[in-house]
Amino acid sequence: MELTCQIMTNPNKINVVEYSEEWPFIFEELETVYKEFLGDLIIDIQHIGSTAVPGLAAKPTIDIDLVIENMEILNSVIIKLEKLGYEYQGDLGIKDREAFRRTSDRTPLDGSGRIWYKHHLYCCSKNSISLKNHLQFRDFLCKNPEKVKKYGDLKKSLVLQHPFDINLYTELKTPFITEILKETGFDSADLGDITAQNKSDI
């Protein structure tokens, strides 16, 4: 089943929508492509971010972590992903999380010619703090529906207050995230790093 329809909006405006049952299926389709083209270079593929949490309002963009054994493999991953139409962007200021940008709406270029749903692709080593952050926050929310509603309400409120400032939007929701990460066992040093990495320049 091909699921590619998205509502066109002002590209500079933050768009938070209600949870869609399509999102896990879109992830699974992308996961199939990465498994085929990257093979043994990756040891896991994780659907992360708000679209991975049932019932959570989210920006309609699928976030994906490719998990590798260690960063010595990264160059080989970069070469493979370039052939699929992704451009390597470095860590973008987030420690242990390497980012890749789609070069067209047909990326990944798997030969199908289809227009893919919007997504963000990252690569993390299996022991990275960023991967631990993504997975523990996602898994906590999946087990705590009252926190899902609270987080969704917070995001909707922040979008109304700062509809065109993604950096400030990110900074202002970070305390909610770090409070949960603290509850799941993150130490103060790692929480401080996460807060600093998500701080707006304004």
3D architecture notes:
- By secondary structure, this protein is α+β, with helices and mostly antiparallel strands.
- It has 2 domains: 23-128, Beta Polymerase, domain 2 (2-Layer Sandwich); 135-197, no CATH class.
- Helix content is 43%, strand content 14%.
- The chain is built from 6 helices and 5 strands.
- It has helices at residues 23-38, 74-83, 129-143, 145-161, 166-183, 188-197, and strands at residues 44-48, 62-68, 86-90, 98-102, 119-125.
- It has a 5-stranded mixed beta sheet, sandwiched between helices.
- Helix 5 runs antiparallel to helix 6.
Secondary-structure blueprint:
Blueprint: H1 23-38, E1 44-48, E2 62-68, H2 74-83, E3 86-90, E4 98-102, E5 119-125, H3 129-143, H4 145-161, H5 166-183, H6 188-197
| Count of structural domains | 2
Structural class: alpha+beta
According to CATH, the fold-level topology of the largest domain is Beta Polymerase, domain 2
Number of strands: 5
The total of helices stands at 6
What kind of sheet is the major sheet?
5 strands, mixed
Helix content: 40-55%
Q: Please give the CATH class of the largest domain.
A: Alpha Beta
Determine the N-to-C terminus distance: 43 Å
Strand order of the largest sheet: 1-2-5-4-3
Question: For this structure, what is the CATH homologous superfamily of the largest domain?
Answer: Beta Polymerase, domain 2
Strand proportion, as a percent range, falls in: 5-15%
Uncertain ranges: 1-9
* Average predicted confidence as pLDDT: 92
Overall geometry comes to globular
Order of helices and strands: HEEHEEEHHHH
Please identify, by name, the CATH architecture of the largest domain: 2-Layer Sandwich
Specify Rg, calculated over alpha carbons: 17 Å
